[in-house]
Amino acid sequence: MIDSTTEVKETTQDDSSTSAAEVDFTERYSEVIGKVNETLDKVDWSQVGRVGKASGVLLAVIVAQILIKGVLDTINLLPIVPGLLELLGLVVVGSWSWKNLTTGEKRSAVMAKLQTLRKEYLS
């Protein structure tokens, strides 16, 4: 008999503490939502578009880099392709160098073009 009375009292205490916790949660929830709304009212929404565009571009660059890395890793798994690509790179650099750096006039033209590009994009 004593055991059953104790169990009933504990159950009653649990119900009252649960309802108190629900009331406390509801109050805290409404406080948090109120603070979030106040903070959002203070945001300058005209600037958010720029931030969104910048973050979108950054996300696109990250995704592109991940895809490029996957493609290059796949190419590196093929046994002969990496060596051929290195050879192709050497041939292209050699050909460009021969075409653009063999005489003083050509070297001057390349330097002038580099200076023009530098002025155009960096200043």
Can you describe what's shown?
The protein has 123 residues and is mainly α. The chain contains 4 helices and no strands. The chain has helices at residues 2-42, 45-77, 81-101, 104-122. The longest helix has 41 residues, at 2-42. It is elongated. The model has no long low-confidence stretch (mean pLDDT 84).
What string gives the helices and strands in order?
HHHH
In DSSP terms (H or I, runs of 4 or more residues), the helix count works out at 4
- Mean pLDDT across every amino acid position: 84
End-to-end span in angstroms?
91 Å
- The oligomeric state of the chains shown is single chain
Q: What is the helix fraction of residues, given as a range?
A: over 70%
Secondary structure elements and pairings:
Elements: H1 2-42, H2 45-77, H3 81-101, H4 104-122
Comma- or semicolon-separated keywords:
mainly alpha, elongated, 123 residues, 93% helix
